[in-house]
Amino acid sequence: MAVYAIGDIQGCHDEMRAALDGVGFDPASDRLWLVGDLVNRGPKSLEVLRYVRSLGDAAVCVLGNHDLHLLALASGNLRKAGKDTLSEVLKAPDREELLHWLRHRPLLHHDPAIGFAMLHAGLPPQWTIEQAGAYAREVEAILRSDEHLEYFDEMYGNKPHTWSEELRGLDRLRFITNCFTRLRFCTAEGRLGLKEKGPPGSQSPKSGIPWYEHPQRASRDTRIVFGHWSTLGYLARHNVWAIDSGCLWGGELTLLRLDAEPPRPTHLDCSGAQDPNKFV
């Protein structure tokens, strides 16, 4: 059995299928980990959702910020509507089945047997992987409950900036969500720098450093695979593997074989479904 992790797809269905065919992925025997952002901005978000859902137990997918955006739109929160390409999903006859399936995906997946954890974006330096799992389950419980409509109504926002165990209610849920689905940079004190989207070195000093470079990062002993950061590209150091290599923007779609030692990447060149300058 091979275990592959795949970078952000964002509706690039044909590239996803080509990458999987290229490594001979067989859902009858292999497993596929998806780092989130299945949908949005690419041309075939609906096809991606249908395919990944059809894989059943052969696929594990964590939620990304674009996946949560789709769920927020479906719940009636239209504050961030505009540049998305999700109308086909929202009008699909199997919309409710797909959204229910997506809403029940985790924020964190940890498999000690192969020695990897997966999330979409990042972790603040204070959290161990065990703590991160507990905090992820807090949000997952809300997503899967009747309270998800209130959550999606208040999900967007950059505050609070810093973790405290004293955080409660929607502020606590928003901070946890922002870490798992939006984090790139943080300060030495763990303050999140959520406005920065460029590669390391482009950030303002007040935004700090890449989350995985924090010298006191409590999760540093756990191997972590993540996506979200297309301007970072493929990276393998500090016990993390970044695999969003910008397929949507004309970069590559990365597959990482997790059960190989060391983990082995495969990259598929992508033509690019969007111009990044339209989303600055």
User: What is the CATH H-level superfamily?
Assistant: Metallo-dependent phosphatases
Number of domain modules: 1
Order of helices and strands: EHEHEHHHEEHHHEEEEEEEE
Number of strands: 13
What distance separates the N and C termini? Answer: 41 Å
User: What's the CATH topology label?
Assistant: Purple Acid Phosphatase, chain A, domain 2
The low-confidence parts are none
Classify the beta-strand content into a percent band: 15-25%
Q: Report strand order across the widest sheet.
A: 3-2-1-12-13
Helix coverage percent:
25-40%
CATH class: Alpha Beta
- CA-atom Rg in angstroms: 17 Å
CATH arch. level architecture: 4-Layer Sandwich
Q: Can you put this structure into words, describing what you see?
A:
- Helix 6 crosses helix 8.
- 28% of the residues lie in helices and 16% in strands.
- The protein has one domain: Purple Acid Phosphatase, chain A, domain 2 (4-Layer Sandwich), CATH 3.60.21.10.
- It is globular.
- It starts with a strand and ends in an 11-residue tail after the last strand.
- The model has no long low-confidence stretch (mean pLDDT 95).
- The protein has a five-stranded mixed sheet, covered by helices on one side. It has a five-stranded mixed sheet with strand order 4-5-9-11-10, with no helix packed on it. Strands 7-6-8 form a three-stranded antiparallel sheet, with no helix packed on it.
- The longest helix has 15 residues.
- It is built from eight helices and 13 strands.
- It has 280 residues and is an alpha/beta fold.
